[in-house]
Design brief:
19 helices, single chain, disordered N terminus, 40% helix, six-stranded mixed β-sheet, alpha/beta
Length: 558
């Protein structure tokens, strides 16, 4: 009779198929024990294998690498670091976000920890690093990039060029030392020079009003960062901003318009820099480690995951391909990069030009100032130059006006004050603002010409007055408009004036005398000596529009 699997066979009997069943309870015990042993051994092996990685992670010594990235790249970098850590669990990559200005501030602190890997957000990074005694080696020239345009209200129109924007009075700049878009707005006029015909000098002149306005905001403690959220339907300013920043801001402010000058747009690129590799003092195994981590991060950005993440962040990849559907700046022409030296020089100029100005304008009113120059006169040229200069300065600039000629003022002195040295936006009561007074008095100078040239004692008095009004937050100067040297025999001699200027000059309270010659007859020999006694300069102006160039040079030479 056959038995199914549920019917136990007699002890010691053969089972179907010729297998012999162990007889008695002892056989069953051996079988169960063997199975249990196999389970124990198998489980031990499983846990040993699965614990290998955990054991490795717990046994390794963690090595730290510091990385500072541009804020807009922070999320992408953290994704890259997570990918690196999957293969390198013993490396602790500490990520922080900061602008170029934030990192540069660390360079001045000997106790600060400088990042070993850096992803800067401005083309100025190399010059600022080098000026502090460091150099960096780019591991990747471009991880991602985004073009820079101009953001305004709904009525914003594409300007002809970046130079035109610089000269148009509507440019709202953030600090180019901290913000890459503003830095590129300063550099773009140099990149488009072939198309516009501008020169380095004309661009410099156009930069003066923009820099002075920025500097005044800084002195007042006002925010120097342009805010896209404040742009409204009636806004007339144009703010340099990246395509990515515009798209992000547009989600909460539908009044924004992004335009590109017809000459093209600059591209803000985010490189991957190994800081340690450029500084021999810190070359070590730590530097090798940071370079290895940097290369791994760079590889992630070129991987499929990295490319997708860059697109999701509304940035452009290294190839610069436009965003889907042509959003943002689309296929706008991209301007070429400017030379590194131009980048460094432009940022240095900005730092100097943005220091606010305090100017005591001292105008020659002697009879020779009536002499004709073409279709105008010397005094009219001086007044027109003064008016151009006034237009260049913001309302917070400090401006005063004196006139001089022999026996001009009380008790026979050669000078008279027509507008005290004060801020242009200061109240002047019934006369409006101090700026209104300055313009009115400047216009009236043409009718006040008479007498001989009393330059010497006027210069000394003006210099001492400017010292009394000295303010550390300003560039303090005396600007003298004259057509020649003194012909007042009762005044100080040249030697006496120069010696007295040198004796009262105070390095702790610097005031420069800047002399602007109004004609070819200007005695440059005497005027040079007077200006040099205070560290100032002597210039010649034949056209009112040259005054901005003179002021730019005077500011840059301080």
């Amino acid at each position: 009779m056959s038995l199914d699997d549920s019917t136990p066979a007699p002890e010691g009997a053969d089972t179907p198929g010729g297998r012999h069943r162990p007889a008695g309870p002892g056989g069953r015990t051996l079988l169960l024990g063997g199975l249990a042993l196999l389970l124990v051994v198998g489980a031990a092996g499983f846990f040993a294998l699965s614990g290998d990685k955990d054991a490795e992670a717990s046994a390794c010594v963690s090595e730290k690498v510091t990385l500072t990235t541009a804020p807009v790249m922070e999320d992408l970098v953290k994704q890259a670091v997570k990918s690196v850590n999957a293969d390198e669990p013993c490396i602790d990559v500490v990520v922080s976000a900061g602008t170029v200005k934030d990192v540069v501030a660390l360079l001045a602190d000997p106790n600060a920890e400088l990042p070993e890997i850096w992803i800067p957000d401005s083309p100025t990074w190399k010059g600022q690093l080098t000026s502090a005694g460091w150099t960096g080696t780019p591991v990747a020239e471009v991880l991602a990039q985004t073009p820079v345009g101009l953001v305004g209200g709904p009525a914003a129109k594409a300007p002809a060029s970046w130079a035109a924007v610089l000269d148009g009075g509507a440019l709202d700049m953030s600090d180019p030392s901290a913000q890459g878009a503003s830095a590129l707005a300063l550099l773009a006029p140099y990149a488009e020079m072939k198309a516009t015909g501008e020169t380095a000098q004309t661009i410099e002149e156009k930069t003066v009003p923009v820099a002075q306005t920025f500097g005044e905001r800084a002195v007042e403690g006002a925010s120097t960062e342009a805010d896209l959220s404040t742009i409204t339907a009636s806004s007339t300013q144009l703010v340099p901003a990246t395509e990515q920043a515009y798209l992000a801001a547009r989600r909460s402010n539908d009044q924004l318009t992004l335009v590109a000058p017809r000459t093209g747009v600059p591209m803000l690129q985010y490189p991957l820099v190994d800081v340690n590799r450029g500084n021999l003092d810190v070359m070590s195994s730590g530097g090798d480690l940071s370079a290895r981590v940097a290369r791994a991060i760079g590889r992630w950005f070129t991987s499929g995951a990295g490319v997708d993440a860059i697109a999701a962040a509304e940035l452009r990849g290294p190839d610069g391909a436009t965003l889907p559907n042509g959003i943002g700046l689309g296929d706008s022409r991209v301007l070429p990069k400017v030379a590194q030296q131009t980048t460094d020089d432009t940022l240095r100029q900005w730092r100097v030009l943005s220091v606010p100005s305090s100017i005591l304008a001292v105008v020659d009113l002697s009879g020779s100032m009536k002499t004709a120059i073409g279709d105008t006169t010397r005094i009219q040229l001086a007044v027109q130059a003064s008016q151009v200069a006034l237009d260049a300065f913001p309302a917070q600039a400090r401006i005063g006006i004196w006139g001089f000629s022999k026996n001009r003022g009380e008790n026979g002195v050669s000078y008279q004050e027509y507008a005290t040295l004060d801020r242009l936006d200061a109240s002047a009561g019934a006369d409006g603002t101090h700026g209104d007074v300055v313009r009115k008095e400047a216009d009236a100078l043409v009718g006040r010409v008479r007498g001989a040239t009393g330059l010497m004692d006027t210069t000394l008095a003006a210099y001492k007055y400017a010292q009394e009004k000295w303010d550390p937050a300003w560039f303090n100067s005396v600007v003298i408009f004259t057509d020649g040297a003194s012909d007042d025999s009762s005044s100080l001699s040249l030697e006496s004036l120069v010696n007295q200027l040198k004796s009262v000059r105070d390095p702790a309270k610097p005031v420069k005398v800047i002399i602007i010659g109004i004609s070819q007859d200007s005695d440059t020999g005497e005027l040079d000596q007077i200006a040099a006694a205070t560290g100032g300069q002597n210039y010649l102006v034949n056209n009112p529009n040259e005054i901005l160039g003179v002021l730019a040079q005077a500011l840059l030479n301080r």
